[in-house]
Give the backbone structure.
Amino acid sequence: MTADPAFSDRLQAAVARHIGAPGTVHALTRLTGGATKTTWAFDADIGGRRDPLILQATDVGTSPVADPLAGLLPRLTAEEDARVMIAAAACGVPAPTVRAVLSATDGLGPGIITERIAGETLGPKVLRERQLAPTRAVLAGQCGRVLAAVHRVDVAPLEFLRHQDAAAQLVAYRRVVDHYGCRLPALELAFRWVATHVPQSSRHTLVHGDFRLGNLIVDGADGLRCVIDWEIAQTGDPMQDLGWICCRTWRFGGSLPVGGFGTREQLFTAYQEASGQTVDALDVRFWEAFGNLKWAVMCLRKGLRWRDGTEPISIEQVAIGRRTEEPLWDFFDLIEGRD
Amino acid sequence: MPTSQPDAATLIEAATRYLEDELLPTLTGYHRFRTRVTINVLAMVGRELALADRHAAAERARLAALIGRDGTLEALNDELVDRIRAGNLAIDDAALRDHVRRSLAEALAINNPKWPRRNA
């Protein structure tokens, strides 16, 4: 999909203003569009060079109806998102290099311009492309080392991050279920199990919150090149990030437990070596189980959100609504040791 | 239930044949993806038409046994949800776990029959 000329002109002016003249925009292409942001790829002439860039534009929403669940879960503003990526990059995390944070005068809404990293993000392709086989062999270890760096980031200057321990998340997800009036015994049992199995956590760190295939750019040479999509970053138990990437939904049909491509031992060993922190496999299992519950609730929300009147009904979203039972099935497999 | 002919399953089959055999080959990108999702959703509706009555009867019978009285599916399910939320049932209660598992399996038989099988 291509952009209208006015949009392209405003983007060129923004590039010239924030990064460098002339800022001429080439090959502007929409990569993804979601409920919360739209991502564009483009090249821009800056000085004598042509730089590959990404525009991540936050959708401010045009619906006259207010989202009844707004603010329930953490979502960073573009400026906060940029500050987290800058802090992560300074700590050795391969996060996108921020080139500009848009301002109101740009007329593009809130957004960030970052450098564009070449590579594959689509889960099924990462798991099946033949030339990525060497990458798959080392990827779980790379994920462990990168997560150790994420969890080392000093969060003191990132005062806007919301602390989301298991209890706070339970309250938020409970409210989503009750808002839509869902009466599913499996969901209720999962909520009760999670509430009674929260591990004692001594560490509170930066948590990426959505660390999984889809948000990792990989290539055949370096493996993991970049971790993207930081907009739900928060602080909390770091084991949450290790559990989330193990959820079967994020294995995209692959047979191995870490993202479909690696073993838990590879992930944990690399994490322990890089962080000096012991990984308790049972704690990670808790967060994997809770991750399944959270994804089940997210599916419900996607399927029923049109009822709020904030967005039109969509075939894609209602189909995701019917995926609610998948992670719940996995939840019980996990807690019964049948995974 | 009296039905007009051709029946609903036939209508779904005809719509699917058009979308899959005639429309899909002409599409790329966004519309190809959305049409695939639409075909999947129609298949779900077809499975639900075939299985919903049997599933509902089985679910109601399990709920009546769990709750210890008879009632409509909705009333019994509401009561079970309330009992779980109130903490009046052990979360490892075998009959409860069995009911939840079977209900999930029934839903998945409609929504995504391949999911309960292992990938390995």
Observations:
- The CA atoms of residues 1 and 7 of chain B lie 11 Å apart.
- Residues 8-111 of chain B form one domain.
